[in-house]
## 1
Amino acid sequence: MSELSRRERMKREPVSMPERPAGERAADFDEVNLGYSFDQAVAEAERCLLCARPTCVQGCPVSVDIVEFVHRVSNADLAGAAEVIAADNSLPAVCGRVCPQETQCEGACVLAKKGKAIHIGNLERFVADVARAEGWATTSDPAPSGRRVAVVGSGPAGIACAGDLVGMGHEVTVFEALHELGGVLAYGIPEFRLPKAIVEAEIDRLRQRGVHFETNAVIGMVDTVDDLLTTEGYDAVFLGVGAGFPRFLDVPGENLVGVYSASEFLTRVNLMRAYVAGSDTPLIEVEGRSVVVFGAGNTAMDAARTAVRLGADPVTIAYRRTREEMPARAEEVAHAEAEGVVLETLVAPVELLGNEAGRLVGLRLQRMELGEPGDDGRRRPEPIPGEVLEVTVDVAIIAIGNGPNPLLLRATPDLDRSERGTIAVDSDTGSTSKPGVYAGGDIVTGGATVILAMGAGRRAARAIDDYLGTDQAP
Amino acid sequence: MAGDNQAMPRIVAAQMLAPDAKQFRIEAPKIARRHRAGQFVIVRVTPDGERIPLTIAASDAEAGTITLVVQAVGKTTMVMNDLDVGDEILDLAGPLGTPSEVDDFGTVVIVGGGVGTAVAYPVAVALREAGNRIIAVIGARNRSQLLFEHELAALPAEVHVCTDDGSYGRAGLVTDALQDVLAAESIDRVFAAGPIPMMKAVAEVTRAAGVTTIASLNPIMIDGTGMCGGCRVSVGGHNRFACLDGPEFDAHEVDFDLLASRNRAYLEGEAARRRELHPCEVTVQVGGGEST
């Protein structure tokens, strides 16, 4: 490669992610983003200033050596780039697609101030996809330690933890309550944003490295955490069970037929494939009907864009604050709008209206305005007296977040909880109040992101490795 | 994507109990060991299949088996009832749900309607073992549909039988027989499992009599672990998830009309799927947990 001067690098324009036209992609479930070509990836990588003290790495929850991998891409050394990423990230093809890069690595990039941050996520995705297609082996695991670890939950936290533990020589079994592996990557995030084949390939890679997976295993009900540590013979346990306990609005009418939690709607479509002919799992018909989604996080965008693909019209996001406060990634909001989703801001549901048969037919919404900042620093939405409107609607989806699922917590009463009811842990190690038991991901933080869960899984893996290496372990 | 080298649960015994109800004994040693009365499993029988909840009718920890009684109501239960000894269940997860409250209450009336009697049976067994005197009031459309009469009698329990068509026992509804039992002696508790209108009617009868009544609810579920909220029911004006907090609740606090309307959510689609499987049958009844 001809060495570019710093000036030349800064002058170049970012290579944007090629995506399918909104009109075309909104009609199917295939992936929206197409990924870089080789030339596009190299061109984007060449823009990197190769900072000596890279702020991007500090912005990454799992501290991928971004400068090194991007440098290798610019030199067309893709195998080398894959190796660098694999050292810190066990799910690069997933993270390249779903991480909120604009608030992490890309947000921390020195070029971000000029609006020209390196598209690190796009590059990570490119490298991971090429690595997968080429079948590059990127890891050689050490000799077996003779120690066994149970990982509860096969979502991002559990997978990241399992990947690191097997890399440390431990024998790992992952227990999943559902019939499919991947946790939120399987039931939550839709195909058009994260193809299931990607998740399967990442899990297969772990399987090849010796990680054992058990489905239909509801830990807490069939084996308890104590059983795992005693009769089942595990030396340590990692709990990464997620925050699967949907919140509802607490307004009249939310039990009407036609009102779904986002988890139920997305589970019916993603996990149970309700949209595929031949699937036995039904979904209330949304084709040609109006759908309203409450909430404005990534899950709300996923639900709205899924409804668009099922033929719903119109699809509206109803949010009590304004667009600026929307917690979803900017890209998800932009994609949703491009696909025809209407953003109706400053409204809050007062009541969901039904007919005599108990089916949803309408909504009563309260107009809001932003008032003084609340405890979280965000301006609080306040109702405008007297401004209540009624709209007709066929299906409502509630996407206002999840609380900690009580199933495992009830079965493990000696596990200390936080004020929010999540599992209390040491934030450096993920260790819980129970010796040998670690936790991470949404069951600790409440609903957060894939990459934060992975970071927690990896920190816990290091702590478990320490624990197993000392004589604290039985 | 399923797990690795997991032995799929195998059916070790199967028999028809009624024209459309089949009893399966399934190898599931861990579930059998953990099972307590009132709990259920989630079952999936085909790769494109629905996840449906089925109450565990009995378990044998020593033999490592659980017993399920399946009434063919929707597509999944129809496909399941075509399975036989030696066949495997694709996905079986459990035991799920909060176990029944079991104590020595005194005299307990167990009310079972149709396949609901298979749901009530394990609770009757547990309550009998805890020292209660059991009176069973069981009903069905006709004699051939009646379940667990002899098993209940063997507990022992005093068994009252009602059939809609009078082909066996008393002609009429279980609530008629229940009313007579309540009039004849002092009852400490009532447990009901069956069609929603039956459970609602039982609740009305016992509310008037002031007898604590527990009903085992059968809402549509997907994951069965509290993740989707599809099984939410209104109890005492509050939303509860039947998969986690139930499936048993205080019948006097349950909004049965809401449960009935939510269970009808997918009736039209299910009727079409049934016609594909069994073109001659077009009737649809509201069954438990399945998207009927």
## 2
Amino acid sequence: MNGMGIMRRAGICAGLLVISAGRAWSGGLAEHALEWPSGAELLRVLTLQDYNTRVVIIGAGLLGLAAGLIGTFLLLRKRALLSDALSHATLPGIALAFMLMVAIWGDGKHLLGLIAGAAVFSVLGTGSVMLIQRHSRLKDDAALGIVLSVYFGLGIALMGLATRMESGNAAGLSSFIYGKTASMVFFDALLIGAAAVVCILFCLLFFKEFTLVCFDAAYAASQGWPVGRLDFFMMALVVVVTVIGLQAVGLILVVALLIIPPSAARFWTERLRSMLWLSGAFGALSGLVGAGISALMANLPAGAVIVLTASLLFILSLTFGTARGLVRLGLERRRLRLKINRENLLRELYEWFETRCGTSDPGFNECQLLNAPGRPELLSLRAWTPAHFRRSLRELQSAGLLKKISSDAFGFTPEGLAKAQAVVRKHRLWETYLITHADIAPGNVDWGADEIEHVLDLDLIATLEQVLTATRPAGMPQSPHELAASERNV
Amino acid sequence: MFGAFFQPSAASAAMAGPADIPLWVEDLTVAYHRKPVLWDVDLSLPEGKLIAVVGPNGAGKSTLIKSILNLIPRASGAVSIYGRPYAIQRHLVGYVPQRESVDWDFPVSALDVVAMGLYRKIGWFRPVSRRHRQAALRELEKVGMAPYARRQISQLSGGQQQRVFLARALAQDARLYFMDEPFAGVDAATEKAIVALLKELQSEGKTCVVVHHDLQTVPTYFDHVVLINMRVVAAGPTQDVFTEENLRKTYGGKLTLLSQALHEYAQAPRPSPGKKGGGE
């Protein structure tokens, strides 16, 4: 069914994950030696005794929550990568705001000013992407790549100028690139908290409107919803989360907090509302745990650890997610394969007996006892691998559908016979349908029916019976073609 | 306060057609990247009919509908729905987009999608209530999809997805419906369900404009036809307009059509939309 789509999505997400994990590593892990925490430190962090730790952990948690919520809509609007370009575009804004503030006040380290500069440039960056998309024939990915790298390059150049300014205390300005949670003060946490509350409120308030625009923007526009303005508002919330997240996780990694939690949440649910809350919870958890770990290990940068925590949640979701996790899909596929195997074996065995003993006495009679096929004979009927075949045989035996007649020959139990009849019936109904209604040559129907018969549902079978048995006697239909079992008569 | 900020600006009501005509189009021209897709379309469609819009690929059938619904900008021309611009008359219009236009992997159920047809009625910020869900379920029943209401939409077949889209438009309770290729790639059961639905809508006096690609079924399903290939080739009752001659003109290649059009322009003054519409 949609297995391929899910696999592809999983691949894309995994790719993103690798990229962000790689960035996290280059973001600082490799620069320092690790210091393991002592027991007393561990206790202090876990019980949130330390004021600073408390501020940082709660701030990071709220940031994760806000990012997870608005990230859900960002992902569903298929703008995940736009947010990456947007966050990279903040860097020249930060540098310019710093230089401007130094020129005016002599000191450039006012957080609100820097954030305002970042916000202005993230909007400029988004606008540039949209301009390129609208007025050139460049594809979206090229537009994103160009804007991302140009703004980031400009930002790095301006950063260089800013740090060379004589006054203004530019040290620590580069923490916006990789993030520095530890430098968070109470005011920052308050700012993040306020933004998170705003985000939660608006995601709830606009839930219906955002959903509609994400699902079917053209329909929304036809109904008179102001799609452009709703889109703008949605991106504005993304900008808010991005700029307040800059200080904590850095502009390179903040996109991970927007994308990874909702991607992970999608594996657990098919409902948007649950996905929204789950994504918020994943984001908050990543923030809390990541900041906590980094508080314990002084040299571990929090931004990187937060993203790695989110990545871990993602991998767990990808694997074990109850809605579309790989384990569940794998189990479903395996269950179907085994069912197909079982049904094929039952049908072959039934047709084996049918060609030798006829269908007049479907019970277990003398003829069937005498003609019971052995393992090699059954194996020769289909392209079964011996291992597969043995497993199916064992399974049918333990399910009470087959029994050993002599040392190595098999026959049906009464339940097995009933089950086999049902399977054969389905197969032949479908074959007859293909011949009478789809104009497929009798010689070719066996294979076609073989593919589909295992997934026919009861309704369809009832309909087929109605359509086909009107002109035919009831009971087991004849096979419309020669049976393989008889061709390879042993 | 947000409601005011998000209100769409009402389009100017300068040009208007007759108030009893569901759809009236004059001089409509649409261009993508300077290449005209629709050229000087004049239409006047009668009320209470099932109307097929027929033409070859790239003839501008979907573009026509989208430009009527203000989804793509018009280079020139005017459209009126029951005598007034679309921006004012939206509540009278239901829209069924092409099925491929959305991502069916989206985490919503069939019922959620149908409820979207009620969003305008529900209004800003208010959640979908139990009453609205029940209304949506009734619309799903009309297209035979009630048993699938809680299914995530990717778990539906193509035909079932199409029926969900139809139910969403029904929920809008419109007088004029635009349907973009509702019969494309659907199973026989869905085709039957759609046809029954169209007849029912017609018996309620509603007008349906349907982009259709299967020429064989046009005479059985529709009583009015618009043949289109960049410009309107012919429009009117099926028995008058759906002729071999007209079809040949519609599908016979753009070059002949263009030269013919230019010839007509040189010959006579432009016919008014009333005459072109088949005199209904």
